[in-house]
Amino acid sequence: MTSYTVRVELHDADGSDYDDLHDEMAKQGFSKTIFLNGVEHDLPTAEYSLIEKGTTSKAVLNRAVAAAKAVQPTPKPSIVVTETEKPRMTSGLPKTK
């Protein structure tokens, strides 16, 4: 399986916009948590995970853009997608409550 990490920044946004973004990203299949050694951890604010087989970084980007635009069509959100098939390296992520 391929792991995708997605960072979304909404411009001129407030906390409720990010709450809406979390909902829209979840509709697109993204998660706010990752599992490390079988333990669930929270990702940093406005960062999302998708683990999926048979997709591309471009398709993942398109899904993230659709979610972000549903919340805030303008100004255009800043989005970064990274793809890996190797284990993720992390530090300081809190365990999910």
What does this molecule look like?
It is a single chain. The chain is 29% helix and 30% strand. With 97 residues, the chain is an alpha+beta fold. Strand 2 (33-36) and strand 3 (39-42) form a beta hairpin. It has one domain (2-84): Alpha-Beta Plaits, CATH 3.30.70.2360. Helix 1 (15-27) crosses helix 2. The protein contains 2 helices and 5 strands.
Summarize it.
The chain has two helices and five strands, in the order βαβββαβ.
Note the main attributes of this structure.
97 residues; alpha+beta; Alpha-Beta Plaits; three-stranded antiparallel beta sheet; two-stranded antiparallel ribbon; 2 helices; 5 strands; globular
Second CATH tier, the architecture:
2-Layer Sandwich
- The ordered H/E elements are EHEEEHE
Spatial strand sequence of the major β-sheet: 4-1-5
Mean pLDDT: 96
Residue share in β-strands: 25-35%
Q: Choose one word for the global shape.
A: globular
How many helices? The count is 2
The counted number of beta strands is 5
Structural class: alpha+beta
The major β-sheet equals: 3 strands, antiparallel
Question: What percentage of residues falls in helices of 4 or more residues?
Answer: 25-40%
Query: What is the class in the CATH system?
Result: Alpha Beta
N-end to C-end Cα span: 26 Å
Any idea what the radius of gyration is?
13 Å
* Number of structural units classed as domains: 1
Low-confidence stretches: none
CATH topology: Alpha-Beta Plaits
